[in-house]
Amino acid sequence: MGFVISAIIAYLLGSVSCAILVAKYCKLPDPRDHGSGNPGTTNVWRMSGRQAGLYVLLGDGLKGTLAVLVAHWIGVHGIALGLIALIVVIGHIFPVYFKWKGGKGVATAAGAILGLSFWVGLLLIATWIIVAAIFRYASLASLTLSVAAPIYLLIAHDTRYVFPVFLITILIIWKHWDNIEKLRKGTESKINF
User: Fold this and answer.
1) Cα–Cα distance, 172 to 142 (Å, whole number)
2) pTM as predicted
3) Among 29, 42, 55, 141, which residue's beta carbon has the most beta carbons within 10 A?
4) Residue 192 lies in a domain
5) Per residue in 54-111, pLDDT tens?
């Protein structure tokens, strides 16, 4: 029963779009209708600046962490806790509140993994920052983070979460498919810090 309650909480929490809420609260353009059309950190950052982008990043990351911590508090452990991380990311990508059209799940995934394994989560965040700072592509940094996540968990001998996090990796790669094509063609937009 604890898993079912945690899964519902995780999905509903994941469905909260911080990009849309920040845009409404700060009277900014709806990210679904402007820029790349993606309701996520990078699009809000590009459209409305660093501060708004950071609000979205923190909100999306925190909901991932919160979903995992609430599930842990309820008594969910092991691979089931990893599945809660997957469910909060699914909620972010397919939000019930916004007609199933959500973001790409990177910040929420990073936050959820931070809740699963604090040091692996910190290492993933550092990986994203380093790749983004060197190459200036948020999408490349996001893809690197998602591919590194199950590998870092294996290295840390935290194998109970590897399979659910691998599924998160597949989702994030799928959501970034257009970005992968743009990176391949050299047409992907760079980010400015």
Assistant:
1) 8
2) 0.95
3) 42
4) no
5) 999 999 999 999 999 999 999 999 999 999 999 999 999 999 999 999 999 999 999 9
In-domain check, residue 99: yes
Q: Does position 193 have pLDDT exceeding 80, yes or no?
A: no
Answer yes or no: are the C-beta atoms of 15 and 96 closer than 8 Å: yes
Q: Is residue 175 pLDDT above 90, yes or no?
A: yes
CA dist 130 and 142 (Å) reads 11
In angstroms, the CA 24 to CA 55 distance is: 12
Indicate whether 151 belongs to any domain. Answer: yes
Residue 37 belongs to a domain: yes
pLDDT of residue 37: 85
Reply yes or no on whether the pLDDT at 36 is more than 90.
Answer: no
Q: Look at the chain and report how many structural domains it folds into.
A: 1
For range 164-177, the mean pLDDT: 98
